[in-house]
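Explain this one:

_____
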Amino acid sequence: MIANIPPIECANHARITMNRTIDRLIVLREEITSTDLEITTIIDQDPFADVTTRWRTVPSISDLDIAAFHIATRAEAATLDRDAFVSALAANPHTERSSTIDNTGKRRRKGYKPAMAALFMLTNRLLRPQAQYSIIQQYQAHLEATHRERTAPACRRKLASILSGIARNPAGAWKKLRVIASK
């Protein structure tokens, strides 16, 4: 990395600071790699191994996402019902209505925040235009065609429900959709 720095005239203290920063970055990269390997090792062992193998069929999912989902469900993803699973990831709708006041979505969401972030990012990766066509893209297109608002939270709930089904079904796996060209 340090070899990539172009020769720039600068004060000696600035060069020393840059070298220290680069050294810290190298150490941090090694720590991240080591942590990623530890996470992978842990989720590949019992009691996580079966569900991990099934979740790895989901496109764009990472081992860090899988670990967050296991933690959020307290390693019981295979036994939780769909509603409990969706709630553990805080993907369930939060509605609070009292007479004329509607506080939909205003309450603080309960759930493991890294799992919430992982679900958010996974949904966005599946919805990006470059991603392989999936049920999540199909669902979003349906919601937009019916002029629904807030399609992203609905897509997160749908993805959480699918992940729950994959975890509960011993033969569960991500289903690829056939794209039928429209005329």
About this structure: Strands lie at 97-98, 101-102. The longest helix spans residues 12-43. The radius of gyration is 21 Å. The chain has two domains: 10-40, 47-168.
